[in-house]
Design brief:
2 strands; two-stranded parallel ribbon; mainly alpha; single chain; globular
Length: 171
Amino acid sequence: YFGREDEAEEAVKLVETAYSDPKAPQFFWIKGSSGVGKSSFLRAGLIGDLISSYRVTGRYAHVVFRPNQLLSGSELASVNDPLKVIFDRAFAELQREFLNKTPDSAQLHYHSKTYEDLHPEARGAWVFRTLEALVEASEAETSNDHRLVIGIDQFEEIVDMLHETEQAEQW
């Protein structure tokens, strides 16, 4: 990825700060006009540097989605629950990247059942805590500093979907 090294380095610093300072922002928005390379910047610039740069202090796992991939009917989603899709993919990526294994069906069933039993308003906090616990467990097992980055490419499409009656409920 060439041409935006300074911006990519600044973005990496922001993400690194988010992990070292609990008061730092945890959500980042890459904005710009259509066609300027936001998707490339996210995938090749930021994610690329996080997983391959000597400048980072931790080891990063990542998942990147487009909003339409989080909805039922896509190749990733078997349910109408974007948060569940994000959790399942992030959980599998953490297992693969940090523990060199795929989650077994019993683990997946347990987490799916736990998620479904929760009140919908409690699910976001549960997803965060569960993924955080998995990162911490992988750190303990491997003695490395592990981190997870979840990217939503074309996030603005969610705003458009909120105005579509069929898809609004899912978000």
